[in-house]
Amino acid sequence: MEKKDWKQKWKIKNSGTAFGLCLVGVAAFSVLFATGQVKQAQREKEQIAAEQLAQAEQTDDGILPEAPDQEGLAAARSLEEMSEGMEVSASDEVTARMEEEAEPVTETEPQTEAAQASAGENLQADTEAREAQSQDILPSLEFGETDTLTWPVAGSVVLDYSMDGSIYFPTLNQYKYNPALVIGAGTGSQVAAAAEGIVESIYTDDETGTTLTMDIGGGYQLTYGQLTDLVVSEGQLVEEGALIGCVAEPTKYYCVEGSNLFFEMTKDGVPVDPVLYLE
């Protein structure tokens, strides 16, 4: 019984020892394998370093693997010289273009000044011509005592000229002097120039509404009141019989008299009877 137990214990002990030895063997193999890998890697690094060092020494000593290609060097030099020549040529071309573009500016400046001077002279000449024309027109407007006027509008006299005594104004319901003719005409009736003249002014008056004054020469002036739709402007030369506008609605001063044309004539600023000159 004791002998059997001893054998069993020996087997168990030997089994544990064998297992331990196996573990030690595996560990030793792993260490050897890892050591081999490290040494292999170290050898590869040393070989790469040796090759790099050899290449560096050959470069420092000026040793090339092959003899230099003289034809290639010559071609490289030729290409370099051509490149430099092209750069110089391009630079010269750019400079020439800049000079060409700059030249017209220098040439055009005197032309611009000359053109401006010429334009100024033309403007001055045009102004002088207009002034001369105006001066030529004004003396030609010589209306005299023997000249006649044409009726400015078709209608009948509602209120006659009266500076010698007062007359009755129905709308105002009073008597007063009348320096003009009040010619009854329908609204929109055409008003023509009674004589050739130059429009001096156009203004609005409370009594006569839109009013136009015209110089006919010789110190005479015509005034047209109660107008609308004017077709002339200040400074314009108007021929005798030409349209100047239309009859407007009457102002509050002529409500009873109805729509009309206020037609006044003066000589050197003094009212005169237009009937004495009307045909």
From TrEMBL:
One Pfam family in the UniProt entry: Peptidase_M23
CDD domains to which the protein is assigned, alphabetical: M23_peptidase
Bias type Low complexity, positions: 107-117
TM region(s), chain numbering: none
Gene Ontology terms for molecular function: metalloendopeptidase activity
UniProt-annotated stretches for the region Disordered: 51-134
PANTHER family membership: MUREIN HYDROLASE ACTIVATOR ENVC, PEPTIDASE-RELATED
The protein's name in its UniProt record: M23 family metallopeptidase
Organism from which the protein derives: Candidatus Merdiplasma excrementigallinarum
